[in-house]
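Box S1 | Example of a co-folding query
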Amino acid sequence: MSAYLTALAGAMTAVGVGAVAMGRSWPGTTGRHRAGDPAPTPLLRPVEALDRFEARCPVELRTTLHVRFRTGGVQCLDCRTTIIEGDRT
Ligand SMILES: [Zn+2]
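Box S1 (continued) | Returned holo structure for zinc ion
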């Protein structure tokens, strides 16, 4: 029984070594078939800020930096509170 198991283990080891040798010598990728560049992501619409100015924030009750968007909205840059809602068309 022990001799049978030893022979079986030896045979399985030989099969494993042969499989590894075949796998290593198998023609693999040469690097010429790599995936191309990933698909370009669609450009996000930039936040179009027209100008920055200091104004009194109604939430923080102090003078902070505000930004005026192209859509007409005004937002506090400290607490991100929208002071004037812009036209979102
Ligand atoms: Zn604020």
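The beta strands are 49-57, 62-69, 74-76, 82-84. The longest helix spans residues 2-25.
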